[in-house]
Structures are given as C-alpha cells and as structure tokens.
C-alpha cells in the first residue's frame, strides 16, 4: 500500500455526477470561524456510534476518545447504540434536545442524505477546509460525504466525514472446507457447487439474516453478476428508471429462491438478525457468511477455527463504499469539540490502529499495518476498487427501502409470495421512495 491512500475506484465520481443544487444553507461560516485547538475543560462531548468493542472501528475509536480527552481536557459521554436504533430514530432524535454532538451514521441518500435535506446535519465544509480533511479523502471517497438539497449523494455540501472504507465479501471456514475437500471457488457455478457439497453433508452452508441487511446484500450481489456501472448509477441516482423485472434482478431473485428451496439458506433466516448470522458463523454452525468488512475485527478476536476471505466469485462488482460517516447534528452545542474529535480519528495513530485491527483506513501505510488478515482485507478492497467494483448498497436509494427490502425477502424465504410478486413489491416500494425524494 505504501503511502498511497486507500480510495474508491476512479470512475465512481463520474458515475455519480448528477444534476442537483447544493444542499444546506449559506450561513455555515468559513474556515476562519473554526477553532482547531478548542479548550474543553469543564465541557462534555456526547458521542454515539454502533461499533462493537472488538471491531476495528470500536478499538480505534476508543483510543480516539482517550486521545481527545488528553488533548482537549473535555470529558466524553460515549453512548453505544445499535445500528437499528440509530437508523430508525435518527430524524426524531436529531430534531430534539437529546441529539448527540457527533455520531456515526450510515451514508447514502436514504440516511445521511435524508437528514441533510431535513436541515438536521451541520455543513462540515468550513471544518473540512480548516483541518485539511479534503486532502485525506480522495475525490471518489467524497461521493458519500456530499449531498444536494434533495439529499442525493455526489454533489452539494459536505455533511459527513468518512475515515475508513468498507465492502462485502465472503468469509469462509477454512477448516470446514479442508475437511470436506473443498477449494475456494472462482465462479458462481463453483460457488453453487460448494453450497451443494455442504448441504449433501447435512450442513446448511450460508449463515443468513432476512430480518436485517445480510440477505438483501446477497440478493444485490447476485443482481450485480452481469450488471455494469451504468446499471448501478441508474439504480442509485435515478438517472434512468430502475426495472426490478430486468434480467439482473430476476436472475438474482430466482437464484436466491432456488438456494432457499435447496436448503443452502435456512428458512429460519426470516427471524434472524445480522448478529445472529455472524454468531452462527463464529460458532462454526455455517461455514460461509457473505457480509461486510466491518465483521473482520470481531471475527479475528473471537473465531477459534482457521478462517479466510475472498471476493464473491465471478463478480466484478460488489456492495461497498466509503465507510459510515461522522456527522455533527445541527443541534450540537459543542461543534468545535466535535470537529476536533473527527480530526483525531483521521490522525496517523488512529488510522494505523484501525488498519491493524481489521479495518480499511483511508490514510495508512504498510508500516502501520502488520496483521496478515488485515493485509488480506485491504488487498481485497484494493482489488475491488482497482476494477471500479464498489456498487454501494441496495437500500440506499430511498429512505424506507431498507425495511421494505427486508420485508420483501422475508416473503421470498417464507414462500408466501412467488418471485414475480416479490419483485413487484420491491418495484412499488422503490418507486414510492424515489417519488418522495425526486418528485
């Protein structure tokens, strides 16, 4: 990696250039208004995030909080929230006196974009200039940090700052593969053969959750198998109508239904959360888990068997992007301290710690990352980005589409709706969400 910053592929920025006005108001001030050495004695900064203690981000940000107190003298009131807590209540909480001063929030139109369009997030442009963050964020990484007046990513003002990258890959139990004479697949057909081999031994191969994000990301990955960049751009930015009955979505839904019917995915997945699926992989109950790089640190510390990772076989693109954002709620009364904390998370010490513990830092050198599995994680990310392979996430286009997608997939797994009706429902939910944003 050298001194080269890890960044998303170069074509992403062009792919997401859309016609939109700048978001936010014009009274955010200038960089001269930002105090980059705030005195925090007697003050408290309230921070929310949803990363586990064992995750790379959890480890790095714990140290960042310590460093923040050392440098400013301010206390930290850290409150661990779940992804679902923040995802479902952000608009309500941030529009109240209960808002934190800085928090981790999901990037994309349906989340950070929505909050920015509602006037609930602070324009970070002046802080970005004062601290020089833009120099640490490649233009393509900045795609998910900027939002228009409509809350559509890719242009407008800065409402968030990412400090790591992420993507979805295949985690696999090396011991289980070896015991069953299986090798890492390189095509979708080979991957399916591996699933069948495990099922023939009475093993449900895929750890899954249909109540939360994992199954939706698997469906999206299957839709990406023969998709191109324009297909992704149309879907994510409404540059052309998305058709859930096109060849990509139809093949994906049919394949997933077939995998459920053959027992590669348990029907119990409808009642399972993402943590349940991750725990099942950790326990060795399921030998394969298709999910995000954010699990890497937890697996590294908790898994007892030999495990590894590989990009989804046969795919040029996979779900992925910059990491989640640090955002500063408009109601925060400690904004200079919030900016200082964000800056500390971008420092060489914290970036190196993030990389060493299984994260994907945006500014870290090889000398700062020595763990073999972490190097593998970063190498896979580089492979994906070098071929313009980050396709964002399936729920991003509309504010309610995350819950809508999960609901549709529960119907598919349960068999309560046939594939064509599931696709009809996804189309209706998507179209409704896009209309609410774009009119």
TrEMBL record:
The answer to keyword Signal applying to this record is yes
Which Pfam families has this protein been placed in? SBP_bac_8
* Position of the signal peptide: 1-24
Q: What's in the keyword line of the UniProt record?
A: Signal
Q: Does the keyword Signal apply?
A: yes
Q: Which InterPro entries match?
A: Bact_solute-bd_prot1, SBP
Name the SUPFAM superfamilies on file: Periplasmic binding protein-like II (SSF53850)
Name used for this protein in its record: Extracellular solute-binding protein
């Amino acid at each position: 990696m050298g001194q080269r910053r890890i960044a998303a592929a170069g074509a992403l920025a062009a792919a997401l250039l859309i016609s939109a006005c700048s978001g936010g108001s014009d009274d955010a001030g200038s960089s001269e208004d930002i105090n980059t050495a705030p005195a925090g004695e007697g003050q408290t900064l309230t921070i929310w995030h949803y990363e586990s203690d064992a995750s790379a981000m959890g480890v790095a940000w714990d140290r960042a909080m310590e460093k923040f107190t050392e440098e400013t003298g301010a206390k930290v009131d850290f409150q661990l929230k779940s992804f679902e807590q923040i995802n479902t209540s952000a608009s309500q909480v941030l529009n109240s006196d209960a808002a934190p001063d800085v928090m981790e929030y999901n990037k994309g139109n349906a989340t950070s974009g929505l909050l920015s369009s509602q006037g609930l997030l602070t324009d970070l442009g002046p802080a970005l200039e004062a601290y020089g963050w833009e120099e640490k964020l490649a233009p393509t990484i900045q795609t998910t940090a900027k939002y228009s007046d409509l809350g559509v990513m890719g242009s407008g003002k800065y409402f968030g700052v990412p400090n790591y990258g992420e993507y979805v890959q295949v985690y696999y139990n090396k011991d289980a593969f070896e015991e069953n004479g299986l090798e890492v697949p390189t095509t979708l057909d080979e991957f399916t053969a591996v699933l069948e081999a495990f099922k023939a031994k009475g093993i449900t191969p895929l750890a899954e959750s249909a109540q939360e994000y994992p199954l939706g990301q698997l469906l999206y990955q299957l839709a990406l198998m023969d998709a191109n960049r324009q297909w992704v751009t149309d879907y994510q930015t409404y540059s052309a109508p998305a058709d859930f009955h096109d060849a990509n979505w139809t093949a994906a839904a049919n394949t997933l239904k077939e995998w459920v019917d053959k027992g590669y995915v348990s029907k119990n997945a409808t009642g399972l959360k993402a943590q349940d699926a991750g725990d099942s992989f950790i326990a060795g109950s399921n030998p394969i888990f298709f999910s995000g790089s954010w699990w890497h640190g937890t697996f590294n510390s908790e898994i007892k068997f030999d495990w590894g990772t590989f990009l989804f076989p046969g795919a040029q693109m996979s779900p992925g992007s910059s990491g989640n954002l640090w955002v500063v709620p408009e109601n925060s009364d400690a904004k200079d301290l919030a900016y200082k904390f964000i800056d500390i998370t971008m420092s060489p010490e914290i970036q190196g710690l993030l990389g060493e513990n299984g994260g994907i830092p945006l500014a870290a050198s090889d000398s700062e990352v020595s763990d073999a599995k972490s190097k593998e994680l970063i190498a896979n990310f580089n492979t994906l980005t070098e071929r313009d392979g980050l396709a964002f996430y399936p729920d991003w286009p509309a504010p309610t589409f995350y819950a809508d997608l999960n609901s549709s997939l529960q119907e598919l797994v349960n068999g309560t709706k046939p594939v064509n009706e599931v696709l009809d429902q996804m189309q209706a939910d998507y179209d409704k969400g896009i209309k609410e944003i774009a009119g």
